[in-house]
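Async update (no meeting this week)

Hi team, since we skipped the sync, here's where things stand on the single-chain job. The sequence we agreed to prioritize is pasted below, unchanged from the tracker. I ran it this morning and attached the output directly underneath so nobody has to dig for it. Comments welcome in thread, and please keep replies under the output.
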Amino acid sequence: MTSSAVYADSFATCILDAKYKQVNIHDVAFDQCNLLLDQQQYLFTVLLKHKKISDGSLGVYPHKKVHIDLKLGAKPLHHPAYPVPHVLVENVPDMTRICPWDRDMS
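Output:
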């Protein structure tokens, strides 16, 4: 293992599992110290109206199925979810060599 890889790993943090639990809408609204009292009250009424989003459960979109029309001849694109740290750039393969069809996409 190279010293740069060891250095990069020393700053890595683990990704914790998501916690799906019910939240107290009143506490969420009135703990927003950056809002004025009337704004906190408005936030509380909006959250109360849509309290299902804070009940701690997962769900699915309950309405109709979604259909997306694609352009004919469109090329699929993929963008990384996050940038590569500078210390690891040398370890990233040349993507134009791996994916030659992406060369003209930039």
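Quick observations from my side:
The chain is about 30% helix and 0% strand.
Residues 3-8, 101-106 have pLDDT under 50 and may be disordered.
Reply here if anything looks off.
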